[in-house]
Amino acid sequence: MTRFRLLALLTSLVALSGGAFACGGSDDDDAGNGTTPTRSEDRDTPSDDKSHSPNPEALAEYFTAIDAIFEAADSAADNAQARLEATPEGAPLAEQKAAIDTFLTDIRGVFSDAAEAIDDLDAPEEVADDSGDFVIATEAAVDIATDLQGQIAGADTQQELDAIAATFDAEVSLTVADADAACENLQQIADDNDIAVDLDCED
Questions:
Q1: How confident is the model at residue 164 (pLDDT cuts 50, 70, 90)?
Q2: What is the pLDDT of residue 88?
Q3: For residues 107 and 73, is the Cβ–Cβ distance under 8 A?
Q4: How many angstroms separate the CA atoms of 74 and 110, rounded?
Q5: Residue 37 half-sphere exposure, CB side, CA atoms within 13 Å?
Q6: What values do phi and psi take at 197, rounded to 5?
Q7: Of the candidates 67, 76, 77, which has an alpha carbon nearest to the alpha carbon of residue 118?
Q8: What is the CB-side half-sphere exposure of residue 34 using CA atoms within 13 A?
Q9: CA 85, CA 73: separation in Å to the nearest integer?
């Protein structure tokens, strides 16, 4: 199942909160504070001027490229998630912390590689803003993951680890929402131009 597409990287981080410090799970809490706003906050849904690209070949090439980037990242994210979930529920605190630290190191690499690859694409004008917004959200997730690693390293009790999880969930929710908006805009552009790609924005 190719569940990655645009959002699964960020969803992998969300999976840490709520039960993930007990190895797995997801959460649908409301957005919190602490993340970097993206340009999507200043725009509504895709406008009509993004429909019917004057350069359909370039647009199709962009979506083919971004699909390939995220297929590769999908596999890497799945592997990292599997390693995290292999940690037994109720494992000692030190084992939990080590497993989460390894996961976050892996995911930061996946995030950074994906953001760099997308940023390197020659994005057509129709998708440039939304592609940039996704890169911004992904880079923000790298910063969140880096901060989270430092917090986890300083946790001395299970209660502290659980509290970090709750705070993290609030912080990452807005970043996920930003990526979601960019993904939906990109999907609409692809649909408007009859490009057969499924970004799985709500996965």
A1: confident
A2: 86
A3: no
A4: 9
A5: 5
A6: -140, 140
A7: 67
A8: 15
A9: 18
User: How far is it, in rounded angstroms, from Cα 115 to Cα 75?
Assistant: 16
This prediction has a pTM of 0.75
Query: Of 157, 155, 168, which Cα lies nearest the Cα of 15?
Result: 168
Tokens of 28: 């649908």
Helices (H) and strands (E) in the chain, counts: 5, 0
pLDDT digits (tens, 9 = 90+) for 50-101: 456 778 899 999 999 998 887 888 788 888 888 888 888 888 989 988 998 9
Instruction: Provide φ and ψ at 188, rounded to 5°.
Output: -65, -40
What was the pLDDT predicted at 70?
78
Confidence check: pLDDT of 21 > 60: no
Nearest alpha carbon to residue 84 among 101, 72, 70: 101
Cα distance between residue 132 and residue 169, in whole Å: 24
Judged against a pLDDT cut of 80, whether residue 36 lies above it is answered with no
Residue pLDDT, tens place only, 110-137: 989 999 999 999 999 999 999 999 999 8
Determine phi and psi for 11, rounding to 5 degrees: -65, -30
- Vertex 127, ends 123 and 131: CA angle to 5°? 75
Taking residue 22's Cβ as centre, other Cβ atoms within 10 Å add up to: 17
Q: Say which residues have a Cβ less than 8 Å from residue 35's Cβ, sequence separation at least 6.
A: 140, 144, 171, 172, 174, 175, 178
